[in-house]
Amino acid sequence: MKNKNLNVESEIQKTMDLLDDFPKIQARYGFYDRLTYRMKQEESASMAIPSKPIWRILHLAVTPVVVSAGIFIGVFIGLGEQTTTADANLETLIETYGLSVPSVPNYFNAETN
Amino acid sequence: MSDLNFIKQLQAGEPAAFRRLVEKNQDRIVNTCFGFLQNQQDAEDIAQNVFIEAYQSINKFRGESKISTWLYRIAVNKSLNYIKIQKRRRVIQSLEAIVMDHREKEIPAVTDTPESGLEKTERLALLRKAMQSLPNNQKIAITLNKYEELSYQEVANIMDLSLSAVTALINRGKVNLQKKISNFYKKL
Lengths: 113, 188
Hints:
The complex is a heterodimer.
Chain A: H1 2-17, H2 31-45, H3 53-97, H4 107-112
Chain B: H1 3-11, H2 15-37, H3 40-56, H4 67-100, H5 120-132, H6 136-147, H7 152-159, H8 163-187
């Protein structure tokens, strides 16, 4: 028992002594090159998003507004142009070929009657 | 070249100055990170984060301390944050394992008995494991002092503490380490 205790004490001491004997770790070869490669990659990835928080928030808030405004304007202009063109085409056809607009029977009214 | 000139070059974004900063400090930063993380790959990844942060915030550095002291501070913070994130991940993973009922049995790192005596590498592993379980401030002080062989004054500068506070931290840390190691041997 006494022997075991002595053994334990010596093991503890041996382990504690290693505190002054930690092997030093060094950066592996090419550390700087790997670092700069990573920095370039991260830089190109973050080019689209501004780095400062305030610009980032603005960027996030404004982007959907701009996109939806673009879609809305696009649809609005597109619809307006289509309607005008259709009317203009009909009038041009009537005038060019001297057509008269036939009286279209009102089927809906006829059916309901 | 004086430190002030060097800092000005860094702040001007000169690549040669940044290269010099990295090459001069890479080993000590990797070694410090390793002291906390115990894994070469993790240590190098975190050391890279340290230099990226230094590059991005060099304009905030006022030159009131040595540039290496500043880098050590970043390294300590980043390493401890990484450990915190890893711990959280491990908790989630172990919860998942419980749910899946596939929990692996923990394999003890040290298998030998005091009678036969442990090998040096096993003792080192035991010591490192015991260091990981110390309170953060004791862990920081001992890691900087023992892994990086920094003086108590340098550790005090990095930790922004008085010399006597650091001395007390390291002494308490050693006592705690001894208790933990002793418990380990007594259980065998």
